[in-house]
Specification:
The protein is an alpha/beta fold and 158 residues long. The protein has 5 helices and 7 strands.
Length: 158
């Protein structure tokens, strides 16, 4: 089972020094917010899942993961949106305690999609749930920005 300490941590994005934040640069933040708002517009409440891959070892620009692996920014993550209706099944796959699933679903019911993001981070066998609050740029603003500069962001969204 996943530790309760890793579930439902409230974050002020880009203000804390967790290991994964080195991977979540401004471009990634825009993409996470874009994905959150697009998912909300299409399907209602839910969460963004960020799968971080530490198995890629490439030359050139790299980041160092917590395990010391070097990874390319283009290969580090992929994003998708999970609707509230599918969350219980999704979280059950990660063998969370029922109490934690209930807490996450309650957070999804109460977060403000125009200002906040529920973000799941999957890194190898680790799973973390964060509520990103007090964002520098709101999800609707990020969505509009990405749409205006679509060609620039398209490679990340394929």
């Amino acid at each position: 089972m996943v530790s309760a300490a890793k579930v439902l941590r409230k974050e002020v994005f880009l203000r804390n020094n967790n290991w994964y934040k080195q991977l979540l640069n401004f471009t990634t933040f825009l993409l996470i917010s874009y994905t959150a708002w697009k998912g909300f517009l299409k399907s209602g409440r839910g969460a963004v899942v960020c799968n971080i891959n530490n198995a890629v070892e490439l030359s050139g620009i790299t980041f160092t993961t917590v395990t010391g692996k070097k990874i390319s920014p283009d290969e580090t993550f992929n994003l998708h949106f999970v609707t509230k209706a599918r969350l219980t099944g999704y979280l059950t796959e990660w063998i969370l305690y029922p109490k934690e699933i209930t807490q996450i679903l309650a957070a999804v019911d109460t977060y403000n999609p125009q200002k906040d993001i529920i973000l799941f981070i999957k890194f190898n066998s680790d799973f973390e749930v964060n509520i990103l609050e007090n964002l520098v740029i709101s999800p609707p603003e990020c969505y509009q920005y990405v749409c205006r500069r679509w060609e620039e962001f398209l490679p990340y969204l394929l």
